[in-house]
Design brief:
Length: 423
Amino acid sequence: MIKNDPFANATKQLDDACKILKIDKGTQDYLAMPNKIIRVKIPVKMDNGKIRVFTGFRSQHNNDRGPYKGGIRYFNPEGGVEYMEREVMALSAWMTWKCAVVDIPMGGGKGGIYLNPKTEKISAGELERITRRFAFMISEIIGPQKDIPAPDVYTTGKEMTQIMDTFGKLHGVTYQPGVITGKPIPMGGSLARNVATGLGTAYCVREAAKIIKLKLKGAKVVLQGFGNASTFAGEYLEKMGAKVIAASDSKGSIINPNGFKISKLIEFKQKKGSLVGFPGSKKISTEQLLTTKCEILVPAALENQINAKIARNLKCKIIAEAANGPTLPEADPIIFKKKIIVIPDILANSGGVCISYLEWVQNNMGYYWTFNEVAKKMEDHITRSFRDIYALSKKHKVDMRRAAMVLAVSRVLEAFNLKGLWP
Ligand code: GLU
């Protein structure tokens, strides 16, 4: 039995949407399970000359609307390798719903290697050998029209370049930048991809603030996690006038009611390796962080952070889920009753995959847009989806998560019904 099984949570969310849409059991089963999941052995010669075997995964959930799309994470969840398998299955399903909800013509996939490059001493050479061996093992099932990976937890443009290069060489030395997104600019990457997730989150918060008539000027923000999504969300919310009063990273959480300047937090973390100890701040627990009184809470770390107990003590007006799956299903009804507006993960962090899609489009046409052109296209996708989801939430009298799932599931079903089953 897997504790807090993320795939069970993803299935529960689908179940809720299927009830609203009155979908039959067979179709629901079709939508729930990934089409394919592979688990691969990654043997690598380490710097000390010894062989070490890692385990990797790729889950391909659904491709009714387009090629599978989704990140590759290097991480070691507490539940071990078995938990990670369930995690990538759930994350691949969320990618299906995420792509559908922001209306990009792609499906859902997710992968990863059970390895934490932050806490383990892994040299750059070792990491490259692990990455390239993994790319070799999944090279048959990925491709620009098949399955297009991207960065996720603890992976960057560097690993994406190595996967692209390995794939190209295995396919007769061809230039195939569209096999992967989140690449550095000289490798065929897109402008604005690095800031995309956080910028998308900020656009969502702006839309939610309009609905509840919240002034962003001076609004207090709490950030959980201090990676790519949360730092850029913080930066753009700061540009919109809000102020970050608490933040956290894997080493701990800090608060200063007078507010922080995001650029100073980034600078400090770069120098010291953690936010903890930032001058003028007080260290607090994760629970205190999440339940800090603020206007905007941005959970941007990992899954399963907001449980029923935390939900009961939340003191925010908007939750923008920059992480994937940060809220447990048990917490949703409590948050809904408290009239906190939740911008669900599949919308709040969809800026990343939106610009990944735009990167792929640019790769396919071999012509590249400016930062503003790309950001504007992403903004259009996100604000349109936000409004559609909000309207559905009013129509069905449900929270934004259910409404987003209803929209996503109906879009996938429309494509599935047009194609039918074959063979
Ligand atoms: N890993 C990101 C996500 O969870 C981006 C995926 C992508 O760009 O394909 O949405």
